[in-house]
Amino acid sequence: MQSKAKSVEQYLIELPEDRRETISHNRNFILENLPDGYVESMNWVLSLIWGNPVSASQN
Questions:
Q1: Do the Cβ atoms of 7 and 48 come closer than 8 Å?
Q2: Burial of 11 by CB count in 10 Å (0-12 exposed, 13-18 middle, 19+ buried)?
């Protein structure tokens, strides 16, 4: 499924209900357990990724 969503929330709204439920459940689990300093973003507008931005590790 190709999407033109500009945010994670828009992407989730576009998904069919069954996929939205599964992806939302997994996303919430990851967000609840993600270490400090990591951020959520979208990659290729098809998947969600979590990572530590370079700017956060340049101390």
A1: no
A2: buried
